[in-house]
Design goal:
It is built from 7 helices and 18 strands. Strands 1, 2, 3, 4, 5, 6, 7 and 8 form an 8-stranded antiparallel sheet that branches. Strands 10, 11, 12, 13, 14, 15, 16 and 17 form an 8-stranded antiparallel sheet that branches. The longest helix has 9 residues. Strand 2 and strand 3 form a beta hairpin. Helix 1 packs across helix 6. The relative contact order is 0.19. By secondary structure, the chain is an alpha+beta fold.
Length: about 300
């Protein structure tokens, strides 16, 4: 039977949403339903998160032709892909041949705004991963922008050479990428090490660049589970991924995050129930990270306006 950990319960209580959270608990299971297994086989990407040997948390993505994700049993996911060199999760998942790596995952289909979160323990399996599942979580489609995808055609498309750039803070160009973003992914872990990956979305500008090493974004109305904020309460380390939907780049950030509960701060941002601040510790940008290209988005009608 699914339960919440102490951090999630503490956040639910502080938000005065404990009753709704108990109702939402029914959306957490440990098995992939048949319809969800079919959904996974149709996806060209899965967004993942985990913790490295130094305790830093990173978010990234794995891609492949539809079918590269399979759920051969209700309690297992296979991923026929591994991170490329330079990806911050490469070493984490390479070590999965020795012992399981805790992996948080979210699969989403922007064209239909469907998504699901799957968390478990990954081990290397041939040219990919086998993940024994601990949590399968149904998610609502709010704040997810509609997009369609295509894979680059090597015969007709210009190919971007893979290049990795690292720094301790965001460059002016990277700050602009964040300001223009309508979507990012956040990875977090519980105090026991279980990993989770989640999605955040809004109209461009919903993520504020306070400084080259500090970001802020609103926490909008959700399902009251507070899986991410609960993790951050007990283990502030977090990783962010800003995917380059039209360029195939990936902007990875790792650092720490905290929830700001001051109502005066939240009231300054339309739609915010509270605010999350993220302190950047390390930046890794990978050009040519993905062969996927996505269309111009149709923004969710649930996105609050940006001040």
């Amino acid at each position: 039977m699914a339960t919440y950990h102490t951090g999630e319960i503490a956040v639910q209580d502080r938000a005065e949403l404990s009753e709704q959270a108990r109702f939402s608990l029914g959306g957490i299971g440990s098995a992939v339903p048949e319809v969800a297994a079919a959904f996974l086989t149709e996806q060209p990407a899965i967004f993942v998160g985990g913790q490295d040997a130094a305790g830093r948390v990173w978010a990234s993505q794995l891609t492949g032709p539809p079918g590269f994700l399979q759920a051969p049993t209700p309690h297992m996911l296979t991923i026929n892909a591994l991170p490329e060199p330079g990806d911050p999760l490469t070493d984490i998942l390479a070590a999965a041949s020795g012992r399981p790596a805790r992996l948080g995952m979210i699969a989403l289909e922007p064209a239909t705004r469907r998504r699901m979160r799957i968390n478990g323990r990954a081990v290397a399996a041939g040219s990919g991963l086998r993940v024994d599942l601990d949590q399968v979580i149904a998610n609502c489609p709010k704040y997810l922008q509609k997009r369609t995808y295509r894979f680059l055609d090597p015969d007709t498309d210009s190919m971007v050479l893979r290049e990795v750039c690292e720094s301790a803070s965001l460059s002016p160009a990277q700050q602009q990428t964040v300001r223009e973003a309508d979507t990012f992914f956040i990875a977090s872990t519980s105090d026991s090490g279980d990993a989770d990956a989640s999605h955040r979305g809004g109209n461009p500008g919903f993520v504020e660049v306070v400084s080259p090493r500090l970001l802020r974004w609103p926490d909008y109305v959700g399902n009251a589970m507070f899986l991410t904020l609960g993790n951050l309460l007990v283990h502030p380390a977090a990783g962010l991924l800003f995917p380059g939907w039209e360029t195939g780049s990936a902007l990875h950030l790792t650092g720490t995050a905290r929830t700001v509960w001051d109502p005066a701060v939240a009231s300054a941002t339309p739609g915010a129930q509270r605010v999350v601040e993220f302190a950047v510790e390390s930046v890794r940008e990978v050009l040519g990270s993905s062969p996927l290209r996505w269309s111009t988005p149709a923004y969710s009608r649930f996105n609050p306006p940006v001040r």
